[in-house]
Amino acid sequence: MEAFASFKKEISSPKKIFITTHVKPDADALGSSLGLANYLIKKGHEVTVVTPTDYPSFLNWMKGNDQVIDFSVQKNIPKVKKKLKEADMVFCLDFSVLSRVNELGDMIRATKAYIVNIDHHQDPEDFANYRLWSTQAAATCELVYELIVMLGDKKLIDKDIAECLYAGIMTDTGGFRHPNTTKNVHQVVAELIEIGADNSQIANWIYDSNSVNRLKFIGFAISRRLVVREDLHLAYFVIGKKDLKKYESRTGDTEGLVNYALSLDGIKMAALFSEREDGVKISFRSTADVAVNKFAASYWNGGGHKNAAGGRSHLSLRATIQRFEDLVEENQKTLFHTRVLDENPN
Ligand code: 5GP
Ligand code: MN
């Protein structure tokens, strides 16, 4: 691993830069990628942003969105391969294990380019030349802001860049509500608002852009697909393929649903199981004293943060739920008494 000085030297002359982020990018993933891209373009670099999959349409307002290349679209594959081959530098944002970018992972592992990893998830893989990584950061967007400041370019952050970065910090703190909402978070977003980020407009674009189908889907899920196990301090949603089809679910439509389960009084752990073409996608959320990232990493091929993690299962939906309930019962002691085991608050 190289020091900041080596990175600073590397980026000090115009480069061909390839930026990527994790599958199904959220506001932090896309906001950090486009916030950084817009800054690097201002510095005279040639920048390409590639996402491994599509992302929700409520993020389409970000500057540079129309230039983003979706690697999961067949016709884009040759172009992405060419861009990666030509790249002098590769930035990996909001993930730190290469399995999070699907097939792009092996291609990045093989590249000769200078790799930069900016992230705030636990247990990073060692694949970068320079890593700006902190689990104390609430969002990758917070780290991108700090990187630009460290490079002495705070004055180059304009309204467009500020809005991309604000979006990621807003969503990764759950609207400034999660325990990761530190004093530094408020200081950074105050600066971003000062620069011109329209905080109320961004909240509106992201949180108030429901389709009728999505709202009806949420109502259906809460009334018909919510399981509450008060004895285990647990509540979870089970969403089948048919449910998603019936409500014409689009990318991003299940985002946030799991929080309704966690909002129940007395519930310490919540989950969302959603049946997809390639297996069951799982989201975990927990209250401050319960660590779900270790549970996700140990049993569900996943990971994440202490209070927000995810993973996957290749069993049937029914078998996944059975295994999940069994595991929660077996692991009750370690799951619900993690304060002493995990000193990191995020
Ligand atoms: P979400 O439930 O919103 O999809 O994800 C919550 C958190 O867990 C995010 O920080 C995300 O990066 C992480 N996460 C979700 N799925 C996976 C996964 O399959 N592997 C890993 N390592 N992290 C995941
Ligand atoms: Mn993030």
Label this structure with key terms.
346 residues; inorganic pyrophosphatase (n-terminal core); Diaminopimelate Epimerase, Chain A, domain 1; 6-stranded parallel beta sheet; 18% strand; disordered C terminus; binds guanosine-5'-monophosphate; binds manganese (II) ion
Write the layout of secondary structure elements.
Blueprint: H1 4-10, E1 16-21, H2 27-42, E2 46-51, E3 69-70, H3 77-86, E4 89-93, H4 104-110, E5 114-119, E6 130-133, H5 140-150, H6 159-172, H7 183-195, H8 199-207, H9 212-224, E7 226-229, E8 234-239, H10 241-246, H11 257-262, E9 269-276, E10 279-286, H12 293-299, E11 303-304, E12 308-313, H13 317-330, H14 332-336
Parallel strand pairs: 1-2, 1-4, 2-3, 4-5, 5-6, 8-9
Antiparallel strand pairs: 7-8, 9-10, 10-12, 11-12
The structure holds guanosine-5'-monophosphate and manganese (II) ion (MN).
Guanosine-5'-monophosphate (5GP) is lined by residues 22, 97, 100, 121, 283, 302-305, 308-312.
Textual characterization of the structure:
By secondary structure, the chain is α/β, with parallel strands linked by helices. The protein folds into two domains: 2-207, inorganic pyrophosphatase (n-terminal core), CATH 3.90.1640.10; 212-336, Diaminopimelate Epimerase, Chain A, domain 1, CATH 3.10.310. 40% of the residues lie in helices and 18% in strands. It is built from 14 helices and twelve strands. It has helices spanning 4-10, 27-42, 77-86, 104-110, 140-150, 159-172, 183-195, 199-207, 212-224, 241-246, 257-262, 293-299, 317-330, 332-336, and strands at 16-21, 46-51, 69-70, 89-93, 114-119, 130-133, 226-229, 234-239, 269-276, 279-286, 303-304, 308-313. The strands form two sheets. Strands 3-2-1-4-5-6 form a six-stranded parallel beta sheet, sandwiched between helices. Strands 7-8-9-10-12-11 form a six-stranded mixed beta sheet. Strand 11 and strand 12 (308-313) form a beta hairpin. The chain is globular and about 60 Å long. The protein starts with a helix and ends in a 10-residue tail after the last helix. Bound molecules: guanosine-5'-monophosphate (5GP) and manganese (II) ion (MN).
